[in-house]
Amino acid sequence: MTPRMPCVALALALLHASPSALAASGAWEAQTYHGNAPGLEANPLKGFVPFGAATNGFPYSMEWYYLPLSSLMTGGNSSAGTYTYNWTELDKAMASAASRGNQIVFRIYLDYPGRAVATPQFLINEGLPMRAYSDYGNSSGKAPDWNNGNLIKALEAFIGALGQRIDGEPRVAYVTAGLYGYWGEWHTYPQDADTSDGKPNWEMSQANKDRLLARFKSAFTRTHVQVRDPLASTTHKHAFGYHDDSFAFETLPGVSWHFWPKMQSAGLTDNWRTRPMGGEQRPEMQATMWNSWPNPTEYYGGTPTENEETSIKTTHATWLLHNWLFNNPVNATQWSNALRAQKLLGYELFVSSVRLPNPTTSAPLAVDLNLENRGVAPFYYDWKAEFAVLNASNTWVKSLGTTQLGLPGILPGSAALTKSFTTAHGLSAGTGYKLILRIVHPLANGKPVSFANAKQGQDRAGWLTLGTFDVTTR
């Protein structure tokens, strides 16, 4: 009988073994974390977002579009419940962003202060009351009667048609519910329930809000929809993500109507685990907020803005509108601070260890991964993972196929989850093969998903090298 190697000697032997020998032993091989791995700054589905295409080179993977409802819902007969649509403007937005490898986030509005009326003309012709106002410097827009029966019916029909058109569309990252209120932000302030200021109450009733949200819920089963107001509904509140459009100014606890206290009141503080959080950096602070870290400069007569890092970590935000950042000169300090915040947003995937035994020509290739999320939020779509093989000279050999890794279930702050992939490989006997991995973007030219690993992009751009292996004969 061959003597057994003492445990200590075995451990030392594995420690000093070549990568192929280590893998062949079936041991787990620890991977090195790299918080500045190539591509992390432009990871898809997360980060800061410009209005359309950016101009100054700051990295991004999503683009924002506002669209007037009147450009999309072009006619109808409320009595008959029939409507006509023209999707040209939405199609143009998706095509424009996709040409740059990006996805869109968008909002459709009926009333945008300072812009032309966006309520479909056929509804106005049917008698929908329209209200003039001078708030927010407005002189051109008008607010419809938000509780008009024909309007609610038309909005329900439009939401259904929109879902049929784009639910699961790979060029769309997230949809904000929009439609109702100023800027589609689900409020009519100052024309709200507090009439002590002498302003009328133009708010949509709770019943009508629930009708719209119910339609969004049924129309979108694949693409995530986000709502501005955490208190918009109790019936459907867990079905949506949320967005804070005054981020890092009216976000944190301390004032009851700030965003996160409203999330707390609604019992939604854990909703980020399954639904994305987004919003917009308060526009007035965008130009100066990256002069220091983590607090932006003060404004509004000395009223301090909130701690950006605390705001991101509290809300588990994944994306934020920040148009100024992408379309103005940005100095080195501002660039560095903004990029630091961008990396804080959303997910950060890290393969912490790999087990890759050497296969034979007749036995399948099997790999196990321990996968962590070191970000603040999940990866909200279960995009496929693809495994492929390079030879010792880093020349492409073949793809081994795709699988689902269950990305949305890899939560920040949780222990690493073990994911496995086994397949017939069809490789010839040889040494020094490399197994590589990527997350497959649904856009053929989409920005790659980068892992926070030292071997990200080491042997092939956009791919993570998992390890080296040999193929032997029996």
UniProtKB/TrEMBL annotation:
Transmembrane segments: none
Protein name: DUF4832 domain-containing protein
Keyword field: Signal
Record InterPro entries: DUF4832, GH
Signal peptide location: 1-23
Gene3D superfamilies the record matches: Glycosidases
Domain DUF4832 per the UniProt entry, residue ranges: 264-443
A Pfam family of this chain: DUF4832
